[in-house]
Structure formats: structure tokens, C-alpha cells
Write a structure and sequence with these properties.
Layout lengths: L11 H8 L3 H23 L2 H18 L9 H20 L17 H15 L3 H11 L5 H8 L3 H19 L13
Helix pairs in contact: 1-2, 2-3, 2-4, 3-4, 5-8, 6-8, 7-8
Length: about 190
């Protein structure tokens, strides 16, 4: 899995205190990871209330499973996995996802052409089925491997690859240059 923009190191003494049941250590961990967990959940769910609930659920699950954390991988990677699982459970319940406003890091927003491209990409993503959108997002933005995506959905790597291929093909078709130029979106 690629490194997230929120690669936060957890001090070993804080982890040890939390494992020993120190409530103040749990609070420090919560504060340390609150923003990145919320941001990840919001990007997957595009709903502030659901992202907040996902944050709370993920942190509760973290505290319940803290004794299972092994120091073989970075703590943030482990917590991130918990947060993604919680967000995907909400997504499955909701069966709906809208990426209209969650793509700022994919396109440089400073130029009018980039703003149009971002808007077009968001609209194209919104037309994909929810599962396909999730696979595309997890692979391209979150940096998950096909194996990791397959594990998230309880499917095979072939499932992830085929969803990504379908999504990519559909996005290419939706984003292909229009013969009439920008007239199709009212800019000309």
C-alpha cells in the first residue's frame, strides 16, 4: 500500500500506555489520528455526518483491537485499514457514493481548464456503479493494491482488476474529448 499523505508516527511509549489501558493515552491517539481518519472516511463516503460516525466507529474498533496490533507495519496503515473497513460497511449499507467534491488532489485546481477537467472527472466518477467507484478510488487515490482491495470486498484479485478495468474504460469513454469542444458544457 502506498504511503498516505497522513503518514503519522505513533510514539512507542504512547502505544504502550494505551495497551496498558491508559485512558489519557487513548485520548492522545484519538486526537493524533482524528483528522486523517475523518478525512479518509469523508473522501470515501462524501458525507460529513457519516464520516464523523465512521471516525467514531473506527476509533472504537481500534481501541477494542489495540492488543492485536503488531509492530510489523506502521500504526497508521493498520488504523487506515480499520477506517476503510468501517467506511466500506457504511457504503454497502447505503449502496450509494458521490465523488462530486472529493477529487481536489487529482487535478491542479488553479486553471480554468483544470477546474473543468476536475468537474468532468467528478461527474464521470459519479456515473460509475458504487463498487466500481470504490475500487477506482482505493486503487488510484488511496494506493491500495489489487490484493488489498480484494480483501476489503471479500473477493478475488480478479474482481479488483476487472472492476478497475471496467471503471477505467468507462471513464475514458466519458472523458473523451467532445467533437464540439467546450460547447457541450456551455463554455463556448
Amino acid at each position: 500500500m502506498s504511503t498516505s499523505s497522513f503518514a503519522i508516527e505513533l510514539p512507542p511509549h504512547l502505544l504502550a500506555r494505551a495497551r496498558n489501558g491508559d485512558v489519557h493515552a487513548f485520548e492522545e491517539i484519538y486526537r493524533l489520528f482524528e483528522r486523517p481518519v475523518y478525512t479518509l472516511a469523508w473522501r470515501l463516503l462524501n458525507d460529513a455526518d457519516e464520516a464523523q460516525e465512521t471516525l467514531h466507529d473506527a476509533m472504537l474498533r481500534l481501541f477494542q483491537k489495540l492488543s492485536q496490533f503488531r509492530d510489523e507495519a506502521p500504526f497508521w496503515s493498520w488504523l487506515r485499514q480499520i477506517a476503510v473497513n468501517e467506511a466500506l460497511m457504511r457504503l454497502r449499507r447505503r449502496r450509494l457514493i458521490d465523488y462530486t467534491d472529493v477529487l481536489p488532489e487529482l487535478v491542479d485546481e488553479r486553471t480554468p481548464a483544470a477546474l473543468l477537467e476536475r468537474h468532468d472527472l467528478a461527474q464521470a466518477l459519479a456515473q460509475l456503479p458504487a463498487i466500481t467507484r470504490s475500487v477506482v478510488w482505493l486503487f488510484h487515490v488511496e494506493g491500495y493494491s489489487h490484493q488489498e482491495i480484494a480483501q476489503q470486498f471479500g473477493k478475488t484479485e480478479s474482481f479488483s482488476k476487472s472492476q478497475l478495468a471496467r471503471g477505467t474504460q468507462k471513464l475514458r469513454g466519458l472523458l473523451a474529448p467532445h467533437p464540439e469542444g467546450l460547447a457541450h458544457v456551455g463554455y463556448v
